[in-house]
Amino acid sequence: MYNPEDYWKKELGGGDAWKTHARTSPALMKSIDRTRTLILPEILKRKKGTVGGILDAGCGSGYAIRTFNESGAWDSYYGVDFQQHRIDFCKENYSKTDINFICSNLNTLPIPNKSISTIYTGAVLMHIPVENKKKVIQEFKRILTDDGFYFGHEVVIPDQDISDHGHVINTSLKWLKEQFDPFDVEIVTLHYDDYDFQIIYAHK
Fold it and tell me: What's the mean pLDDT in 145-153?
């Protein structure tokens, strides 16, 4: 049975091996470029007002929140991940930034109500079991400002509410709309490097 804590602790061989991968992976370099040239501009187009921070939920190696931080577009920056070795990596590599890196589960975020104007995930919700996923979405709604939004690079399935395959648990647009209510939820398709990918965009 899939246990997220155990599964991701062993990812790519564990802490030290993971850190080496995070520094040298060609795929990660491409993800950094995609975030800087495509994801960030798309988020900024949708951003309203100047109040509120941005959260990279499931921040991994921290490249996305670092990119957002470089833009200077928010008044606070949070990178949250439930694996301590990932947070340690982020703190070591981005120590000169004002990003708040926190080791925490996403279903109990240590972030005040209505303090975040933008939440981003990159292939994170798809790895969270269904019952926890529901709690995570409730936390997202709790911390978002009234004009805030969620922008997630995830997979949405067309023909059933839930598709559960071990560590990959995808959901439908219908399921997402039920969980994010009263937010509107739409799927945005973006194009990068000869392929299309989906963004879940939840907003009021």
Answer: 97
